[in-house]
Protein 1
Amino acid sequence: MPAHNPPMYLELSFDLGAVDTQAAEGACWACGASALTFVDARDDAVNHPTKSGPTCEANSSPLDKTPYFVGTPVLEPAPGEFRLWPRTRLRCLFARECDAPAIARALGAALGLDPMSIEVRAVADRVWEREWLEHFHAMRFGHRLWICPRHERVSAPGAVVVALDPGLAFGTGTHPSTALCLTWLDAHLAPGARVIDYGCGSGVLALAAAKLGAGEVHCFDIDPQALCAARENAAANGVTREVQVHEHAGTLPPAADVVLANILSGPLCALAPRFASLLRPGGEIVLAGLMQHEVEDVTGAYAPCFDVAPFGESDGWVGLAGRRH
């Protein structure tokens, strides 16, 4: 019997640069794209997702025309406020029989890009859920904390387990900045603490805090899909009493003991006064999602109200922690 060859697609990818995100989306759909994926170009350049196991296309389908954002855990900004990442790359799938050079020329004309800067390659269709199951396994953070896909079990003595399967919302613990935050929680979270997870994505940090003994955990994200994922994951882990999901930042309670923000350096800087208002004096702030060269700017933004310093680094990503004055 002849071997089954999976259907192939053509992937066109390019850095957005100064191109408006919505304009890029519209141009790609107009050219016949079947799926779009936005990635942090810094991650994409180092470790191309389609070659690295867990990828940002985990639930992408050539029939799914809903773009979503992955790579760096992110609080998506309001239009015109902040970019998704300092360097955002758009990858889009087209049918194999499409005229790739013609599409590259059309995208170049529509978006002011050099068509030669648009990369083209063939990719095979995959059962993405199965791909995730093959590559995503239980991971330990610190001494007790484990993030574990629901199909696996952890038998380590004293293990604190968060059951989490990959999905569209960000966060399974695989990204270095998420791992830094999880390790901090394992080492430093006080029992009974009131915690805020700002830009919660899948809720992985909130779930970990609840499992590690936080008294109450409040999540916020501007992405409705992330809020839905956080609620579902809280229910799956039996922590709906501890974890409260907020649709509006204005409903977050004051006097928190810990604020977690694993987002981007631009929003982190802008949100420093807001985080100061959410924390009690002496409360702890944990910041991640920034690169080594961004530490000075973020530290400076927090200096008026906080004493913050790096607590860890992984693959160029840095975590900052400190206390409110």
Note: The radius of gyration is 20 Å.
Protein 2
Amino acid sequence: MKKRILIVEDEENIREVCKRYLEREGYEVYTAMNGMEGWDVFHQYQPDLIILDLMMPKKDGWELCEEIRQQSNVPIIMLTAKGEERDRILGLTMGADDYVTKPFSPRELVLRVQIILRRGNQIPIQAKESLSEVIEFPDLKIYPKTRCVLVCENKVELTVKEFEVLYVMAQHPKQVFSRSQLLELIWDFEHEGGTNTVTVLVSRLRDKLEKHTIKNRWIHTVWGIGYRFEPNGGNET
């Protein structure tokens, strides 16, 4: 069955070029020219991945991304003409999995789509050797095969990248990962956002994990270096 891609982009030439390149790779592609139309198409076709422009009339990409994230963890790649770091960070904070700054190569966009969709169906390569039915810690359960995460028996909805960060770190409790290491492990290509991408993603992951508990913090900051996974969920010192 073909994977469904939704492109929400107000510039017709960009929209059509992206559509054409993705269709050549065998994807079923739907398009929308603004955020409101994108919202309707999202509900109608339930795409496997969304390519979302940041600046659009009627409803911008930030707003649409936030609304989609309230209902779905479908992978989202943001397109933006803005190169400012704060705009990229805001997009990631809203729940985007990746972003591409205009102008960009359609081939690069296709590659990013392929990588995200492929990894959405796979366990991170670094963790495959110890694949098990469940990885269990106090108040935290991780089910690799179904990508289900439970905190105090409450299901936590994670995006592809959030799950990969959690799973890779949980496979190596107490090991310190630098932000650069995590960036290299989770992304299969050079990411223009640098280590700030990891900082935002970890912050988002923590918020989701700690929503259902007041006593646990599994991902600890190692100041000046990166992060480590604390298996007992103790408070940071």
Note: Residues 125-229 form a domain with the Arc Repressor Mutant, subunit A fold (CATH 1.10.10.10).
Protein 3
Amino acid sequence: MGEPDRVEPPDSVDPVSAEPVDPDEPRRYPSTLGGGFYLVVLGVVGFALVLVSLGEWRNGIRLFGGSLLLAAAVRLVLPTRNAGMLAVRHKVLDALILLALGGSLIFLAGSIPDQPGAF
């Protein structure tokens, strides 16, 4: 029994896209409303991480969690075709994961007691 014949892929395959693409039209960034909210959430998370690194960890983690809650609300409101990078799985599953993570971060930031001698 020999090895099966190899099938070579075609040289050119058209890209698969949800929207028709006009090569003469300039690209708009972000191309969806959800993409804009994604960039806002990403910016807030970056700022929250700066706060954490400066020693304001509790406020930074609360801000991080709040941005995830904002992302969950936006994911629930926007239709899937406009959700951009906020859409990973089914709408409800995406929102539940973001709600669980954001709520957990806010809860943990509030429930961890202050350490003696900490500033």
Note: The chain has a mean pLDDT of 85.
Protein 4
Amino acid sequence: MASEILLNVKEEVTCPICLELLTEPLSLHCGHSFCQACITANHKKSMLYKEGERSCPVCRISYQPENIQPNRHVANIVEKLREVKLSPEEGQKVDHCARHGEKLLLFCQEDSKVICWLCERSQEHRGHHTFLMEEVAQEYHVKLQTALEMLRQKQQEAEKLEADIREEKASWKIQIDYDKTNVLADFEQLREILDREESNELQNLEKEEEDILKSLTKSETKMVQQTQYVRELISDLEHRLQGSMMDLLQVKRGKKPEH
């Protein structure tokens, strides 16, 4: 029961803009309260986009800056409520400004830095463009989500291109292997033809060599016989010339060699 009461109280003292417990609460004449940093940032945003019109972010009732009042009663309730832990989640650490101790709820565009409302009013950030951190975070989230989707699309395109290249490589390998097989088969066939031609030519040359050598051998034999016959005639004639007249007149008949 006490927990429900505390939850209800917490809901009443929660800033409608940042959805956190009110910090330096300011109340409008319509009765709604906001963190000082949140309503200030909202006021700047309204001045920028609505031609100077100021209205409550909850009920849209117009207000004047002089009608904004600090709400100490609500601030005291928030201070007491911070001392109570409604659940383990309530005790989680909240980021605060190291210099001022206030919640870091604003984002400085020029310095790309998260700051508190007191930092915004300091000389360091005076005149800079500041926005609610949640709005900037949401914008960054959208940009990062868009970038992520683009990268995923590029990744898909790259993976598809990679797959196409692998497929083309495989196709070319199959084609090259097929061409290699055909070339090897063609040259093997040519080698068989050349081997047969070589064998036939060698056989023809051997036959020609055999015939020529046989003919030359036969001619050589005849020439040897003729030479021997002539040698015998010469010897006989020399003998007759050196002999008597009787020997000179004797005719020696011998077998003439065949031509």
Note: DSSP finds six helices and six strands in the chain.
